[in-house]
Structure formats: structure tokens, C-alpha cells
């Protein structure tokens, strides 16, 4: 039957056209702009009109998914849970109670970059010397790159160390290897590699690769002491090198009279487990020089030396002189301290100990307990700027510790410059003779004035500034 004149025949909606501008997008979501269907295209009850959105990866991987938007005047819908840095194809169709209209033209959009979600593959490491290794890797899987890879970082640290890993930067995406240098000798390292995009660092490769640098000759043995000294014999003890640089195979001990005419020496080679040695048949009341060195398969290492006097009259050393610091040797965070050694008590000094005390009411605190036995000066660092300190020193030999020296005079750690170090100029600066520098400045934090000390500050000059020599800095 024909419909009455003037009535409308219901049907599916007309074709939907996406809004101009395509897709705006983020790493994981893409808002699809919608242009509401004109009412003349509803072809039915307006309350039944809605939209259906379907989308899929442009490369054909994965499934085609869809969402339904029930609100006929909706202008945007955010498609979520997408892959990073992936191109998608999106279409929209309108529907009503009768059915669905035709699909719109396809709109193509790409989600934004993110960080790589996995590390490079096939990571390997090969020790090339005792302090270097070559690290190689392959690409991050394409699906996990999530953007344009701008370079790589090699992460490495000593195995079982609590220290933070160090990073070796490889810029660009053309290289797949790095030569790490400056490594510890005969040290086992954990090595990982990560890729980065402009957004940031991706996940490192896993699990870490283990590689040990090659061995080398060892460092000197440590902690040499003579706990027993007689007129014709001495007993020497020591500890292994702090840097063994390999497996210790033996120790060698050499001793001779410490004179310019001595032309013979006694040499003994001991097992790697040895930690003491007794020298017999020595001359009474004489000074002997002992040298001890360790051996790896790479050879004999650096020797440690110590003097000993064959006497039974040994005593603790006398304290060093009062330490002094010259004004030109004072910095904001360090001081060069000097002293004169006291008598060694016929038992050579093995090391010095330095203590510091913060004025006015701080307690004595240990700064260093391993200052070289032949030192007469030492840089005391880790001080606080604009703070006064006192210092004292003691010596240690095989018998024991000396008393501490007299306390030093108060020393104030402070910068040597008299003018502020950092200037922020807001206008051009020109030099004109015989003119002053009127200026406003901004101090970065609370400042307490101290006599004869400058005020470190950041200066903000409001306009053109001209310099005048030999005049003060009037300021507001």
C-alpha cells in the first residue's frame, strides 16, 4: 500500500562523514572526531540514532574491534588500549531502529611515541683487556620499539654491588656495539642494554649478561706490620692486595739493610695463603728495608715497602706537631693541612689519622685513618662553606698510637672570591670609565652576614649596565 501523501518512509540512516582533521592521538588512545549526522539523514526516529566505530591496525595484525556510541549528538569518542606508535584505520557508520547505514570513508591515524617496552635482543659481552670489554646487541623487536629509537645506553655495575649502575651512551640508531673502558681489573660485571626514544628510556635487556675483565698484575699487599721485633729477628704480617687483579699465586719477600752500601738482599717466595714471615739472622740495632709483592699469572705486581729497626727498645711514636693551614690553602670545602712528624720511637710510623671538629660546639670526628706514613701534609675535604674548624693528627707505628697533636688554630672554610660568582643580566652590558653600577639583585636564600666575608648571590640587573673601575657597587 502506498504511504499517505506527505508522510516519510523509514529506512537506514545515510552515510556518515568523519569530521575534518582526522585523528588526534596519544600513546594509548585516539579520539575519533565525529560530525553529527544531519537530521534529514536520520530516516527514522531520532531517539534510535547512534554510531558504530570500527578500527584495526593498518598492517593487518590483530583483530578488527568496534565500539557503539548511543548519543546521536556526540562529536568525539576516545578509542583506548591501543598500541604505541602504531597506525590504525578507523571507520564510522550511523544506525537507527531499522538498521545500519553505509560505512564512512577510512581515516588513518597513528598513536604517539612512548618508551620501548623491551630491551635489545642478543646482548653479549667480551672482555678485551683487564679494564675494557666489548658489548654487542641486536635491535629491539619492532613491535616493542614504540617510536623512533634515538640511541642506546649500556648499563653496567659490579656483580653483587650495592652501587648504582653506570651508563655508557651510544647516540644514534646505526651502532649496535660499545667498547666500555675504565673498568676494574679482573672484576665480574652485570651488563644490560636499553634503547631510548624522544620520550625516554625503555626497559633494559633481561637477564643481565655476566662478564669478567681480564686479569693483570696485582696491586701492593696491604697492612704491613711488625708485631714482634728482636735484635736479630723480626716477624712480618700483611694482608692481600686491595686490588688483586686476578688469582694470587705467590708472595715474594725481599729484605736488606737500609744503607747505600748494601749490595745483597735475601729473597723468599711464599705460598698464596701465607700472611706472615719471620726473618732470622739480622744485625742488631740496624734498619732493614722489607719489600713484599704478590704474583698473578700475569706476573709480579707493585711492591709494598716498610722499614724496621732491630731493637727491643721500641716505643709508641711521639705526637706530630700542631697542624697548620696557610690562608692561601683554604677553600670553600677543603683545607691543605701540614704538620711535622714526631719521634717514631724506633719503630717507623705506618700511617697517620686526622680528626676534625666543627666550631663552636661540635665533637671530634674521624676524617681519615689511612694517611700515608711518609706524608707531612694532607687535603682535608668534605668541609662546609662558611664554617670554622679545628684539626688534630696522630701517628701509629707497630707498637701503637701516639697522643693526638695539639689542636690547630681555628680555620674558616670559605671561597676566595670577593664578588658574587653568578650574574644574571637582563640587558646589555657596556664598559664606560668612571661610572658606577647601580643595580637590583635577588639573593637565592637566607643570607647571614659574617665579618670580612662576602655574600654569594645571584644578581638580576634590570637594564643596561655600565662598569666603572675602582668604585663600589651602589645597589637597591
TrEMBL record:
It comes from the Eukaryota. InterPro entries: FN3_dom, FN3_sf, Ig-like_fold, Striated_Muscle_Regulatory. CDD domains: FN3. SUPFAM superfamilies: Fibronectin type III. Residues 17-114, 119-216, 220-314, 319-416 form the Fibronectin type-III domain. The keyword Repeat applies. Residues 454-476 are annotated as: Disordered. Gene3D superfamilies: Immunoglobulins. Keywords: Repeat. Pfam families: fn3. SMART domains: FN3. PANTHER family: PROTEIN SIDEKICK-2, TITIN. This is Protein sidekick-2. It comes from Saguinus oedipus.
Amino acid at each position: 500500500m502506498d504511504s499517505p501523501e506527505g508522510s516519510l518512509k523509514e529506512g537506514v540512516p545515510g552515510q556518515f562523514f568523519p569530521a575534518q582533521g582526522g585523528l588526534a592521538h596519544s600513546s594509548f588512545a585516539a579520539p575519533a572526531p565525529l560530525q553529527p549526522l544531519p537530521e534529514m539523514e536520520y530516516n527514522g526516529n531520532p531517539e534510535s540514532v547512534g554510531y558504530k566505530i570500527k578500527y584495526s591496525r593498518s598492517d593487518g595484525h590483530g583483530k578488527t574491534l568496534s565500539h557503539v556510541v548511543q548519543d546521536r549528538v556526540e562529536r568525539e569518542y576516545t578509542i583506548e588500549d591501543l598500541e604505541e606508535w602504531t597506525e590504525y584505520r578507523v571507520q564510522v557508520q550511523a544506525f537507527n531502529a531499522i538498521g545500519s547505514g553505509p560505512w564512512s570513508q577510512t581515516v588513518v591515524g597513528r598513536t604517539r611515541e612512548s618508551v620501548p617496552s623491551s630491551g635489545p635482543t642478543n646482548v653479549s659481552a667480551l672482555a678485551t683487556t683487564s679494564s675494557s670489554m666489548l658489548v654487542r646487541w641486536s635491535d629491539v623487536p619492532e613491535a616493542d620499539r614504540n617510536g623512533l629509537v634515538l640511541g642506546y645506553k649500556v648499563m653496567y655495575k659490579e656483580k653483587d654491588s650495592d652501587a648504582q649502575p653506570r651508563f655508557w651512551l651510544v647516540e644514534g640508531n646505526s651502532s649496535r656495539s660499545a667498547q666500555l673502558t675504565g673498568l676494574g681489573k679482573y672484576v665480574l660485571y652485570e651488563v644490560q642494554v636499553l634503547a631510548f626514544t624522544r620520550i625516554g628510556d625503555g626497559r633494559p635487556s633481561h637477564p643481565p649478561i655476566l662478564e669478567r675483565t681480564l686479569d693483570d698484575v696485582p696491586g701492593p699487599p696491604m697492612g704491613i706490620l711488625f708485631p714482634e721485633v728482636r735484635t736479630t729477628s723480626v716477624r712480618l704480617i700483611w694482608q692481600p692486595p686491595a686490588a688483586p687483579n686476578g688469582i694470587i699465586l705467590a708472595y715474594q719477600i725481599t729484605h736488606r739493610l737500609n744503607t747505600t752500601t748494601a749490595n745483597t738482599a735475601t729473597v723468599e717466595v711464599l705460598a698464596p695463603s701465607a700472611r706472615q714471615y719471620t726473618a732470622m739472622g739480622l744485625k742488631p740495632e740496624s734498619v732493614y728495608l722489607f719489600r713484599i709483592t704478590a704474583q698473578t699469572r700475569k706476573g709480579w705486581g707493585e711492591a709494598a715497602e716498610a722499614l724496621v729497626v732491630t731493637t727491643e727498645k721500641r716505643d709508641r711514636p711521639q705526637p706530630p706537631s700542631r697542624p697548620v693551614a696557610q690562608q692561601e690553602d683554604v677553600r670553600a670545602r677543603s683545607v691543605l693541612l701540614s704538620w711535622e712528624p714526631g719521634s717514631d720511637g724506633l719503630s717507623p710510623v705506618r700511617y697517620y689519622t686526622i680528626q676534625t671538629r666543627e666550631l663552636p660546639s661540635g665533637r671530634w670526628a674521624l676524617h681519615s685513618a689511612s694517611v700515608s706514613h711518609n706524608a707531612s701534609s694532607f687535603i682535608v675535604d668534605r668541609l662546609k662553606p662558611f664554617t670554622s674548624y679545628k684539626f688534630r693528627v696522630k701517628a701509629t707505628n707497630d707498637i701503637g698510637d701516639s697522643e693526638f697533636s695539639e689542636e690547630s688554630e681555628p680555620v674558616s672554610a670559605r671561597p676566595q672570591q670577593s664578588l658574587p660568582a653568578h650574574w644574571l643580566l637582563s640587558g646589555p652590558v657596556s664598559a664606560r670609565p668612571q661610572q658606577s653600577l647601580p643595580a637590583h639583585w635577588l639573593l637565592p636564600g637566607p643570607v647571614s652576614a659574617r665579618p670580612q666575608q662576602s655574600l654569594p648571590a645571584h644578581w638580576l640587573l634590570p637594564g643596561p649596565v655600565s662598569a666603572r673601575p675602582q668604585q663600589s657597587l651602589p645597589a637597591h
